[in-house]
Write a structure and sequence with these properties.
The protein has about 450 residues and is an alpha/beta fold. It has 2 domains: about 210 residues, Rossmann fold, CATH 3.40.50; about 210 residues, Rossmann fold (3-Layer(aba) Sandwich). An 8-stranded mixed β-sheet has the order 3-2-1-4-5-6-7-8, with helices on both faces. Strands 10-9-13-14-15 form a 5-stranded parallel β-sheet. Strands 11-12 form a two-stranded antiparallel ribbon. The chain is elongated and about 80 Å long.
Length: about 450
């Protein structure tokens, strides 16, 4: 592992002054993007005394922060309220206030285009705003997940148009977010942080910044190495999930229980890490990050066949769920067309209020297209648009005994802990379980079909 060399000398007066501010917690920190990454980061910085300004183009979100009204599950309401009340944390839509900041951290979305290419327009727009107000003595760090090369190929040229020199007048680094929404064990503070600087001085200052609020900071040789580290982490998960999903398809043909096989294999104390099958992959990372890498690889005349195949398999399993529902309904002399299908859970994983890239959206859209009467219940997601530009609008309905009994099929797509699965199975005619949520249900198991 790379060690951070203390390369700042008295001659590097700008760098030394900034590092001193960071270590004394007097540096004003600006966070662009107050979502699931930015707001927890802003709160962590504020908790140790850094004055923080949050920037967002969403005026409603800014107003909520300034009112101490929390909207991120990984942030404690009381901590946000205390920081706002003390004047340590404020939010604004006025990007001219970037000039007040000694540190600016970019935490904006990096989605895919309709053709599955990287969309770094939010990064570029944020950087252009920073460039307008860039001054000597500022550290800029990017935390948004992106392809290797973004920091030095996209951000750096935009910033150097000012005439300021990186590593001398201003400092630039990449440190990818590692947020896992809903994780009760690992938070921003105790999740190790990778950081790479454009120059050794950039790395030294960025490392100093992150060590103020994060237990373990891991320096690497360059921003590109840090960028690839993040993409690799999520590609690793996507590929392993694809492998177990493909095994699920095979087990279905063979009449074997994939859940039994995976859990038995997981008892081995070495050489295996357990991944579980499901109806597809969702969230802000796994369905997206591998495509950033495959796109960048083409620049080097390299095709990431293994990664692309994993993406195909993880997409295919959503169609497999439809097939499983069709077969299960057929056993009850029903067709998908006009069947009443009640979906339980649409968030991309259990116990969170995040629906981004959730496979539930694709599956609900497919069912609707096949003529099914789709409804859903999710206590965390009051309203959804099933997929992209779809015109189908659904609102979460109350989960009553009558609704369970009236459904031709209850489809479990997200295994929220709040659901009483014994009760669901007792009241439903048919349950298709894509998460093994009914594992502990003892009664009426003949009504359950697992993928």
């Amino acid at each position: 592992m790379l060690e951070v060399q203390q390369v700042i000398t008295a001659a590097d007066s700008v760098a030394k002054a900034l590092k001193d501010k960071v270590e004394q917690h007097t540096a004003r920190v600006g966070v662009i993007g107050l979502g699931y990454v930015g707001l927890p980061l802003a709160v962590e910085k504020g908790k140790v005394g850094f004055p923080v300004i949050g920037f967002d183009i969403n005026s409603a979100r800014v107003a909520r922060v300034n009112a101490g009204d929390n909207y991120i599950g990984d942030v404690k309401d009381s901590e946000l309220q205390d920081l706002v009340h003390q004047g340590i944390l404020t939010a604004t839509t006025d990007f001219s206030r970037l000039a007040e900041c000694d540190v600016v951290i970019i935490c904006v979305p990096t989605p895919l285009t309709v053709t599955r290419d990287p969309d770094i327009s939010y990064i570029a727009a944020s950087t252009e705003q920073i460039a307008q107000y860039l001054r000597s003595g500022q550290l800029i760090t990017l935390e948004s997940t992106t392809y290797p090369g973004t920091t030095e190929e996209v951000i750096l040229p935009l910033l150097t148009k000012s005439g300021l020199q990186v590593g001398k007048d201003f400092f630039l680094a990449f440190s990818p977010e590692r947020v896992d929404p809903g994780n009760k064990r690992f938070s921003t503070k105790n999740t190790s942080k990778v950081v790479g600087g454009v120059t050794p001085i950039c790395l030294e200052i960025a490392y100093a910044l992150y060590t103020q609020t994060i237990v373990n900071v891991v320096p690497v040789s360059s921003p590109a190495a840090a960028e690839l580290t993040k993409v690799f982490e999520n590609t690793y998960r996507a590929v392993n999930i694809a492998m177990v999903n493909e095994l699920m398809l095979l087990c279905d043909r063979m009449g074997l229980d994939i859940w039994e096989v995976v859990e038995a294999a997981g008892t081995k104390p070495f050489g295996i890490q357990t991944f579980y099958p499901g109806p597809g992959v969702g969230g802000h990372c796994i369905p997206i990050d591998p495509f950033y890498l495959t796109w960048k690889a083409r620049e080097y005349d390299f095709h990431t066949r293994f990664i692309e195949l994993a993406g195909e398999i993880n997409t295919e399993v959503s169609y497999y769920v439809i097939n499983k529902i069709t077969r299960a309904l057929n056993e009850h002399n029903k067709s998908v067309k006009d069947a009443a299908i009640l979906v339980l859970g649409v968030a991309y994983k259990k116990d969170i209020d995040d629906v981004r890239e959730s496979p539930a959206l694709k599956i609900m859209e497919l069912l609707h297209g096949w003529g099914a009467k789709v409804s859903y219940h999710d206590p965390f997601i009051p309203v959804v648009e099933p997929h992209g530009g779809s015109t189908v609008h659904l609102e979460s309905i109350p989960l009553t005994d009558e609704k369970l009994a009236d459904a031709d099929c209850v489809l479990i797509l997200t295994d929220h802990s709040i659901f009483d699965y014994d009760h669901v199975v007792a009241k439903a005619k048919l349950v298709v379980d894509t998460r093994n949520a009914t594992k502990e249900v003892k009664q009426n198991r003949e009504r359950i079909v697992k993928i």
